[in-house]
Amino acid sequence: MASLLIRDVRIFTGEEEIPNGSVLISGGKIHQVSETQLDAPNSTTKVISKPGHTLLPGLIDAHVHVDKANPVALPQSLRFGVTTVCDMQNEPPNIAKLRTQAKGVANAADLKCCSLAATIKGGWPEAVVTAHDKSAEVQFLLTRVRFLDHDTHV
Predict the structure, then answer these.
(1) What is the predicted pLDDT for the residue at 152?
(2) pTM of the prediction?
(3) Which residue ranges form the domains of the chain, and what is each CATH number?
């Protein structure tokens, strides 16, 4: 994997600001962050100079709902600087699709998923989901996600 040198940028490391520095990426990982302008380590290193721009760590969106495994969601997240998303409460077929999308697309955010939520009949998110879609498919999926019913005592 080729190296990448980004220089002449303001850098926020997550803890401090470097007003005019450089970042060297090698093997797909940050190799060096410098307060000075680094030189390319070899002739194959791609150099990008971006005066007036700010470089910061990837953002994490810890609560998203990727409805029906929308294939636009993960690439769009990355375009907005979000490198990792956590999908909260999704159906198993959608989770499988999202995992495939996250692995198969180079320009997409990484996916974390909490999977299914334990709920009771009529509990969250049934009212919200059925307000938008009352199809037989959705009704079937809701019965699969329901782990508790009104007669169960925990």
Answers:
(1) 45
(2) 0.62
(3) 4-55 (2.30.40.10), 59-113 (no CATH), 117-154 (no CATH)
